[in-house]
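Forwarding the complex inputs:
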Amino acid sequence: MNEPGDKLHLGLWMLTTGHHIAAWRHPDSRPEAILKIEFYRELAAIAEAGKFDMVFFEDTLAARERNGEVFGEVSIYSLDPVVSIAALALATRNIGLAASYSTTYHEPFVLASKFATIDHLSRGRAAWNLVTSGPAAARNFGSAEHPDKETRYARAHDVVTICKALWDGWGEQAVGFDQAGGALYDAAGVRTADFVGRWDRVRGPLAIPRPPQGYPVFIQAGMSEWGMDFAASFAEVIFCAARTLEDAQRFRSAMRERARGHGRSPDQMKILPGYFPMIGATEKEALEKEAYFRELTHPAIQMGLLSERFNLDLSRYPMDKPFPMDDILPRLEERPNIGGDRARFLADIGESETIGDYCRKMAARTYSSHQYKAGSPDQIADHMGQWLREGGCDGFILMPAQAPGELKLFVDHVVPALRRRGLFRDDYEGSTLRDHLGLERPSRPAFGGAP
Amino acid sequence: MILATALNAYGHHPLAWRTPGATADRASDGSWFASLARMAEAATLDFVSFGYPLQSTALASPERGDAIQLDPLSLASATMTQTHRIGLCAAVATAYWAPFNIARAFSSFDNLAEGRAAWLVDGALHPDDAKNTSASVTADVVQARNREFLQVTRRLWDSWEDDAIVLDKENARFTDAGKVHRIDHRGAHFTVEGPLNAPRPVQGRPPIVMADQSEPGLALAAEFADVLLVRAPTLEAAAALSRSVKTQARACDRYGTAPRVLVDALVATSEDLPACDADSLSWRGPAAGLADLMQAWTASGACDGFNLLPASLPGDLIAVTQTLIPELRRRRLVRDAYEDETLREHLGLTRPASVFSHAGA
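Prediction (whole assembly, two chains):
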């Protein structure tokens, strides 16, 4: 359970024209604008006007494919998320700037430099979602095969240790700027990281003073056993997928327990499930909108999405027959188990009599594993409030069906409804992302001390 | 002539940070860099660069004004919303990166900034870098690795043809998948299947800027560079470097024009700072006086322009914009206003076609 006075934390998951698979075909969508920074600047400004905690950009390291081929029905690229948040650093004032970036395919020294830089440029608003990347990435990085999950998480663990040591390299007052004495910084206040591990060897220090937030905010999204324990050891924001309040409560209390097990205060870990709203002036209108989005979903898109998921060309199978499980299961094993959604996915298709049934049911959403709610602003605000009050979450990562239109609708109508219920801030109360999230600023450990 | 300037926190004179007015927070203040970039844009320079001169990732000693170094690519990216037309060039080291990540980062940068990105290739093996990376790039392979790195990056930028994105809402065709290609590169240093997960850059390929005038550096520049930054104390030295790289470029299988050669020019307009010994061009005195020299060097073909290094910031950049640029404009040696959209266009460089667009795919 949360305390009665607790408020929601809201992040905006930036995904080009929106999270509905057919969003780009919406008459209001401007897919020709989504390669330009002005588009993201507009979305960030809307979210900032709504006093959101942060915007978030995801990361993939390969063009999307299915059956070994790129495909055309939806966008298959993914711009560099760190370039994107850097570009927004001077174009926003208060909102947090979060990006996923791979610990498997970037040097730790580069990762530490980039996130320290963005934290400086934004004056304390950077966050990093650590990802270890899916198997498709390996082919673009000369690896014979993608390292297994255990190896990836072990390396990610090392990367966290290295980055903390690099960010702790500079004392809070190390930029002495002694012009008369000729010392830009105080050498005694800067120390090396001297990390030597199985994969990485990093001496340091960075040529960048300690970030304004101490460390940028750490985010993690692993829902597997490995991922949960890794996340509980250091993550301050957890992105997750929860289809029911009960699932969310179970996950949140398990994570809080694990955080305690790592000697951390569970209140220093904010759990934000994905939330995909379909907003109408009334519930009826919301359902009509849902139907409209379903209409927008070209059969090729829905079938393509499923085929991508299974890595199997489903157009070869009849829509009015059950899923070809014998063909699907072996393929599914090869896919990344993002957010532990494989099991949920199997449960879903178990409930669907035919491929066509499933397509119709899931057409409203890109990510069937996230929370979905069609309703009026008051209904959505009540629903979000219930999740907060009953301990299902500390907030949500918002996945607007379409952008900027549906995001604007959320900010103009749902946010005020949340405020009327005392569930969301009226204005920013601090200047850093840690302030928005109610997270402590990590202090610099004493020399040789454990973090 | 082509004009660029290299931005840092305090200026390119080693003592600039100790002059009155310099403050500690400038080195990590994005709005400071944005104000400098806007100043350079008001002077209609071709581009500003971040991370020049190239240096090791290792922390420099405390007396150095450039000891604090933000990530140049993030800094350049941050300035894209604060400027409109000027080119934005960022130094990134090949030793720390994989070609796929560089190609993706610069494609993203160039698309988001609508064709204003450039990559300053740091291909050096700085002795201290080995301490901060697990990558094992050694002196005997660095040249071959850089060459392969640039080949792969180029092909990744080309892997999406210019018209691959169709956005046909009616028929649910976002991308013409037939115009997105694997590169299937297998070389001595990299194996990269592709395609890139970012569409073709607005400029086709963001301009490649290099700054290594060693013999192997010139050979690499001849093959790949769009712009070469050199240090030359005399017109003759500049002319020799230009001749060398342009002659080699003619023998290379490269698209378009030979590299544009820009000579570093330290500009010190006040008497506050002592002269520094340098093996490069250094101007002391009123900024307008530099115009004669610049005109003579470019007219003789010794170089295509200059990379202005303000000795002290913001004073020497202000002097450049208020006195040198008006003088150069009066002589019709530089533009009065931007006439084009992209950096490639500012530089008068042709836009390369994708190697895949002739593949008959």
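Residues 142-158 of chain B form the longest helix (17 residues).
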